[in-house]
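Mods, move this if it's the wrong board.
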Amino acid sequence: MAVTDVAADSLAALDTPCLLLDEARLTANVARMRARLAGLGVAFRPHLKTAKSLDVARRAMTGPRGPAMVSTLREAAYFAEGGVTDLTYGVGIAPQKLDRVGGIRRQYGADLAIILDSVAQAEAVAAWVAANRDPVCAPLPVLIEVDADGHRSGVAPDDAGTLTAIGRVLVAGGAVLRGVLLHAGDSYGLSEPERIAAAAEAERAAGVAAAGHLRAAGLPCPVVSIGSTPTARFAEALDGVTEVRAGVFMFGDLFQAGIGTCATGDIVLSVLATVIGHQRAKGWIIVDAGWMALSRDRGTARQAVDQGYGIVCDPAGTPYPDLIVRDANQEHGIVALRPGSAAALPDLALGARLRILPNHACATAAQHGSYHVLDAAGRVSATWPRIAGW
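Not the wrong board. Structure tokens:
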């Protein structure tokens, strides 16, 4: 029996649309990243914001307790309950969330660190520490967020005054100043390896400079944490960095393929859909996966190759030539050939199954409550739950 036939038989019992995960590709992607970062001499802290699954986390982390990065306190509690206790919450802290942070630390014995980038936040943390002297959940570990490239949040790396002012408030207030943390978000807008490597070097240099200001002021800075999938993929040297964070690398997606951090054949996730109709005069095949299943992310529209709402594959995961989801309504996907293509529209019968590779793994996975896991033969071998919410 052909691989496509085996895959089709295995997928036939699934309700659609649903999310598929190729376990062999996941394993290979993780192994490549681990080997790369080990070669650069830095620790690896995988970001679990895309995965939101203990089953995925256990395959991505270097140990059963972490380290790991999360983007919501819902994730922090979920992973801590599952035994992952070395965690960094990677969104700037709001004072109202400090009780939740303390509760997670207390309930699960988690070493949950937070980040901030202002004196006002540091003062709120110091006030919280003063009011919560429980040795289990305090003192609270904190990293100062540093702006690597003007992309989002953080203290400028050359702003020694603000960096040291934040550090002194934290230390005097009884918190633990753990170090600095950066995210080179602008790297997602690049595609040439040499430009991404330059962004990685700028991220590294900014982190080392910020750490130097803290240390010169007599403040502790044991951790210099940087990270994004593009810079982790193309960094050439990481002197002075202690850990790297990356997350979407483990799944890949069409946006990442467009900037060169993975190949289409490395993409782990796909959405299984069913053909529910045809508009033959228009060259359309209608499927039951619209933007509610695929997400509304159209990030590849800004790249050299616009992938619509996703590349369409057969049940074994092999792309059909030039076949994409050209448009999407809430529960309907319109499958058609890429504009200008000379390929033939495949003859897909009513009820046929398709797999759609996503533009953005994070956004597409967020639409689904579980992963249907495929083994090397394309058979469904397990179902892994995933969480949602904040």
